[in-house]
Specification:
By secondary structure, the chain is α/β, with parallel strands linked by helices. It contains 8 helices and 14 strands. A 7-stranded mixed β-sheet has the order 1-2-3-4-5-6-7, covered by helices on one side. Strands 8-9-10-11-14 form a 5-stranded mixed β-sheet, with no helix packed on it. The structure holds zinc ion. Zinc ion binds next to helix 2.
Length: 226
């Protein structure tokens, strides 16, 4: 894993940067798909986790969450409006997406999600996780949250933006795909909110980290004129 900022480690994924998990201190944020479990477990080794949190409860972020919480005996923390999906696990969350019969969500619904796990703490705006503050950023999911550290302007943005085309894996800023985003208009509000923070470092669910707050803002502003 690589340290992206003090106390912020990005775990190695395959393909690189495609599906990201982070350690904020001793809190694991997101767990990839259920197929990522061996790689994730190898990197986490014998360390102690104080908690495992999600940016949101889609299968490419919660796939190994049950396994992580069992193995590390740590509590599961999830944005309040995503708790039901995180506890149910499995394919149910994909049935609520805008085009559940579209071949890509259907394929992902079989490949990615892991079993659900009981949520010990519902995360809300202003809560503290490690030395980050929880921001409610709904749209891509109802309970999507981001993690913000004001002192050095580090943002864990989840899927409010992606810094990779998730179909081709080519680098670049994008909105999350509509087929996985129940409320794209609300997600745009969340994008504006996060871009306005001018994060010195933005870490994404998909794509390499970005150290360019102006680019994040310019990208968000350009959307308005489309
Ligand atoms: Zn995702």
């Amino acid at each position: 894993m690589r340290e992206r900022a003090p106390g912020v480690h990005q775990l190695v994924s395959f393909p690189p940067n495609a599906i990201n998990s982070y350690l904020l201190g001793d809190v694991l944020v997101d767990s990839g798909t259920r197929l990522d479990r061996p790689l994730l477990m190898r990197q986490l080794g014998n360390r102690k986790l104080s908690a495992h949190a999600l940016t949101h409860a889609h299968g490419d972020h919660q796939g190994s969450s049950h396994a992580v919480c069992e193995r590390f005996e740590c509590p599961f923390w999830v944005g309040a409006a995503d708790v039901e999906d995180a506890e149910a696990g499995g394919r149910a969350v994909y049935a609520k997406m805008p085009q559940p019969l579209h071949q890509v969500p259907r394929l992902y619904s079989y490949m990615f999600p892991g079993p659900g796990h009981p949520v010990a703490r519902q995360l809300r705006e202003g809560d503290t996780v490690a030395d980050f503050t929880v921001l409610e950023t709904p749209g891509h999911s109802a309970g999507h949250i981001a993690f913000w550290r004001e002192s050095d302007r580090v943002l864990i943005a989840g899927d409010v933006f992606t810094n990779m085309n998730v179909m081709t894996l080519m680098p670049g800023l994008h909105e999350p795909l509509d087929i996985f985003t129940p409320d794209p208009a609300r997600n745009r509000e969340s994008m504006r909110r996060l871009a306005a923070l001018k994060p010195r470092l933005t870490c994404f669910g998909h794509g390499a980290p970005l150290r360019d707050p102006e680019r994040l803002q310019a990208f968000t502003e350009a959307l308005e004129s489309r």
